[in-house]
Amino acid sequence: MIVKIDGDISRTYCQNLCLIFFPGAKFPDGECQTGETPEASIVIREENGVYESKVTLFDGKTTVSGNGQASVSTLASPDRAKKLAVGKAFQSAGEVLLGQAPPWGILTGVRPAKIADELISKGLSRKEAVDALENEYLLRPDKAKLLTEVNKRQKYARSLLGNDTCSLYISIPFCPTRCAYCSFVSYSTPRYLSTLPDYLDKLCLDIAEKCRQINESGKSLTTVYIGGGTPTVLDEKQLDRLLSTVVENIKGHNILEFTVEAGRPDTVTTEKFDIMTSYGVDRTSINPQILDDDVLKEIGRRHTVEDFYRAYEIASKSGIKSINTDLIAGLPSATEESFCKTVDKIIELAPQNVTVHTYCVKRSATFTTEALEQGDKRGIYSFFGNISSACVDYSQKALSQAEYFPYYLYRQKNAQGNLENVGFCRDGYEGLYNIYIMEELQDIYAVGAGAVSKFLSPNGGKIERIFEPKYTYEYINK
What we know:
By secondary structure, the chain is an alpha/beta fold. The protein is built from 16 helices and 15 strands. The strands form 3 sheets. A 9-stranded mixed β-sheet has the order 11-12-10-9-8-7-6-5-13, sandwiched between helices. It has a 4-stranded mixed β-sheet with strand order 1-2-3-4. The protein has a two-stranded antiparallel sheet with strand order 14-15.
């Protein structure tokens, strides 16, 4: 897709707006194009604090234009007003071109809850914040309300933080199999799994070193999160070693939440959960994605629906405080009916947390490469979201009626229908680490292949990120 800009506006921002209306678009460096290449032409001008923009979109056949305007105010800095004007012009043109407005309007960021927090922190009531999100950012009313509800639930999690707190993330990038929708760096082949013992040796050394750094910094460690991959791919002896290393090195800290993901039901055993709870692990995740054996097989999961129920029962009987279940709305091989039935069955189990993800098109995932080879017959690149929109809407209504509350939310590029991922919880069971990392409320010390440490700037400036080696063999030999 070609992007032409006349005026002072971020090209990256304009490209992100293009992705709302042209999912999966690529942006070449040069101006070489054919008569069928989609194009966006943006003009932005300012006069006396008022920004006006005109956007013209061409989809290869049809050309449409739209206009937008925004003023500098207490709620909008010059940079924000400029982006609002361009965004409104995009929305005006895109809605005509496609006959439908995106549910999240012109919001493009990963963390939209930050916008709600910003509006409320400037003195707006929640109702006024909803109105601003609808009128200025063009959100659909239910999405605007969802953001303010997330902000409300996060208030408790924020209250638990002091001035100098941090969390620890530990990466176990190994899985029994690789899912067809996944592009994470996690290893499932026998060759890579054979590196696990050496990886664990290196990881335990780094955990001790990272905890030493935390102690020397004077910060208080609040949460520990062991994720992946699938941490419970470790056998019982390996898991015991990992957790004993963690517990030994976090002594003296008041840990509010200790999570170990057990996302793959086929890796769950009673013995592993006995080990986890003996070391104080109080939160886990057992992830069915969908309760449909045919779909599970097609997406590359090695477990069955029955395996999920078995694993969930083990976790529940272990006495662990909080269990999360992950679901994915809009999997290419699923139906709306099978997903909605899954939501109902999960509500019957009554886990403390339910996280509903929207299917996201990952460039290196099997589903994506197949779609490109076959001309995207399944329509995974879809502005309208195929079944995802109906599935997400159903899940949010059903969970709300069952007294689950949205507590964290994030969005991804190329999510079907420009939709969101939302974590729901029973009252008092917010996943603290999820909130702290997603809303960037504290430093995150991270260890393991592919892990990213994040350090906040004292004055609210740019966040410093330190990346661990991406691949396990690089990490072991670093």
